[in-house]
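Subject line: Sequence and fold of a protein, written as structure tokens
Body of memo: The sequence and its backbone structure tokens, given next.
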Amino acid sequence: MVKPNCWQVLACGREPGGAKTGALGVCPAAIETRADGLHGGENGGRACWAISATLCHGRPQGTYTQKAHDCLRCKFLARVRREERRGLLSLAEIRQHLKINCWEHLACGRELGGVKAGELGVCPAAIEAATDGLHGGQNGGRVCWAVSGTLCGGRVQTTFARKAGDCLRCEFFERVRQEEPRLISVAEIQALL
């Protein structure tokens, strides 16, 4: 049985064909197929708190860390908690289903067809086929720290040595570290490049 999704309960209008998609875009939760069926929802509609760029309190949000305070006060999350009781998946369990790429998590816009690809170029991590599948990512999307030319700290970086400090502070890098039982080393990744 499909249970009500966030866009149905909160009436945000960001579901495909929704009233606010022209102004705010389609919500990533509404089209996140990797989360389809979680908590009985459609796509990410019942795991929206774990998905970046959802609409909270009338404005598009960023990553989980940036929106966590809003999510903890959200009436929809409280409803899912009540309905799922002991079956509520933890954030870590939901993220295992998602296995998202850096450009999805960080919303940098440098993926193929991304909003900043024309201005800053397509990110090498988004097209690095030699690392496709590492840590469950697309191309270099889950090993971006080892790929030169990524956008880190608000600027396009060159080598790992130059961007290592930014990577060690990066929320996405920390996320991958938490999700993976063994993180592939930079040396192992660079041997593939």
